[in-house]
């Protein structure tokens, strides 16, 4: 019960890695706000997590400052605090730079990087006053090495690393920690859409010779969210099975 009596907010929490994080948090005693742009899916996810008083669903577009601040207020109004913020919401719009539109570049930057900045800013406003809190940003190994066809995604995920380190320095004296994780090839709906030859090529790069599971990412996020990592801030942990080390 590493998060007993704690309140967490997970953006993009209705499915995939976000839902696995919310599920893991609940299993460790947390109350969770599932924030997702798809309100119906958020409500379904919250019901799966046990509904009230364990989980609350909110519709949230992470590129909208008012919506993000409203989600944070929902957490404090419903559960009395905000102890953990996970900036997980994301999209992909893959294409080579030659074919990528400006709209697809900007939309990915907006959801990932601006969304993480807005989430960090809103959560920090509450956590500074509490004198405690943990913010975990979901980056990607793509932000470390860069991937063909992902100039938008790689740039956004690299930006999240810079955001994490800078905000960690700003907030440390107030007792607020900010860390990030960089997942590699994780078995989700998004990666399930990959062509078989692309999937196999990615697997061949992994020393552990398998893809990761969403729960394996969630366990590392749990570590960073909890007091188990109480002397860690500004860190970026890779969850890749050894890929790109």
TrEMBL record:
Keyword tags: Oxidoreductase
A Pfam family this chain is assigned to: adh_short_C2
GO biological process: fatty acid elongation
Gene Ontology MF terms in the entry: oxidoreductase activity, acting on the CH-OH group of donors, NAD or NADP as acceptor
InterPro entries: KR_dom, NAD(P)-bd_dom_sf, SDR_fam
Gene3D superfamilies named in the record: NAD(P)-binding Rossmann-like Domain
UniProt domain Ketoreductase: residue ranges: 6-202
Family the UniProt entry places it in: Belongs to the short-chain dehydrogenases/reductases (SDR) family.
Protein name from the UniProt record: 3-oxoacyl-ACP synthase
Organism: Saccharopolyspora rectivirgula
């Amino acid at each position: 019960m590493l998060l007993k009596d704690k309140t967490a907010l997970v953006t993009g929490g209705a499915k995939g890695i976000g839902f696995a994080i919310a599920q893991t948090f609940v299993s460790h005693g947390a109350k969770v706000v599932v924030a997702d742009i798809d309100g119906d899916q958020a409500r379904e996810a919250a019901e799966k997590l046990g509904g009230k008083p364990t989980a609350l669903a909110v519709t949230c577009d992470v590129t909208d400052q008012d919506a993000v601040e409203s989600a944070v207020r929902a957490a404090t109004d419903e559960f009395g605090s905000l102890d953990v913020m996970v900036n997980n919401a994301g999209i992909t719009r893959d294409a080579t730079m030659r074919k990528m539109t400006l709209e697809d570049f900007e939309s990915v930057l907006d959801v990932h990087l601006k969304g993480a900045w807005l989430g960090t800013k809103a959560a920090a406003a509450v956590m500074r006053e509490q004198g405690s809190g943990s913010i975990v940003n979901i980056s990607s190994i793509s932000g470390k090495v860069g991937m063909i066809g992902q100039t938008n995604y790689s740039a956004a995920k690299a930006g999240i690393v810079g955001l994490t380190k800078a905000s960690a320095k700003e907030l440390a004296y107030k007792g607020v920690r900010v860390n990030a994780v960089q997942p590699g090839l994780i078995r989700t709906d998004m990666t399930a859409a990959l062509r078989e030859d692309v999937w196999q090529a990615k697997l061949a790069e992994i020393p552990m010779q398998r893809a990761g599971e969403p729960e394996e990412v969630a366990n590392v996020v749990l570590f960073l969210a909890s007091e188990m990592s109480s002397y860690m801030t500004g860190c970026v942990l890779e969850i890749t099975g050894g890929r790109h080390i």
